[in-house]
Design the sequence.
């Protein structure tokens, strides 16, 4: 099973599942958020969703660089997009899909509602990198990856790279198909 030390990569089944709603904000949720922030910091990312560390629950964390060099951080539980406007295209990558950096079309601004770690309702309105990160991480909670949001031609070009990623993930997670000649079980 994936540990908090590792980000689940393309091919991992947990990335394709719809994550479960969080019904109670207990110690396990607070610990999960802590693990997610630690993983995000180590990976130098701007956002992370729980499925990316192998936990199929609806929580995302964000760490958005600010102009003054600090980072704005938030954990959002059961997040939902309640408003979106405009369209913006920008290049985007994903910690779970290394080696892929593609232009993706998203809403320009979004408003997301959810709960914070104290169970209080919060609303986050974002544009720019924050809007992009919110939409990207919410996609993860529904089992959607950036490669699902690129055109068929681009996806075709990436086919071999994605297959290799899938194979190495299967090896790492110990579910590799038997090598040629090996007997099936
Ligand atoms: Zn991602």
Sequence:
């Amino acid at each position: 099973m994936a540990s908090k030390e590792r980000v689940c990569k393309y091919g991992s089944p947990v990335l394709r599942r719809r994550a479960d709603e969080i019904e109670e904000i207990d110690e396990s949720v607070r610990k999960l958020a802590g693990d997610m922030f630690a993983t995000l910091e180590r990976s130098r990312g701007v956002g992370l969703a729980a499925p990316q560390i192998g936990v199929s629950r609806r929580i995302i964390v964000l760490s958005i660089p600010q102009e003054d060099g600090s980072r704005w951080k938030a954990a959002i539980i059961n997040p939902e997009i309640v408003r979106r406007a405009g369209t913006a295209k920008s290049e985007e990558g994903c910690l779970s899909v290394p080696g892929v950096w593609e232009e993706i079309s998203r809403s320009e601004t979004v408003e997301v509602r959810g709960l914070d770690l104290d169970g209080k309702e919060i609303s986050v309105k974002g544009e720019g990198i924050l809007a992009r990160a919110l939409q990207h991480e919410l996609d993860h909670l529904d089992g959607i990856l950036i490669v699902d949001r690129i055109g068929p031609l681009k996806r075709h070009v990436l086919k071999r790279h994605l297959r290799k990623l899938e194979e190495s993930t299967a090896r790492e997670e110990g579910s590799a198909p038997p090598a040629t000649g090996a007997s099936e079980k």
In short: The longest helix spans residues 152-172. The longest strand covers residues 71-85. Residues 13-172 form a domain with the Peptide Deformylase fold (CATH 3.90.45.10). The radius of gyration is 17 Å.
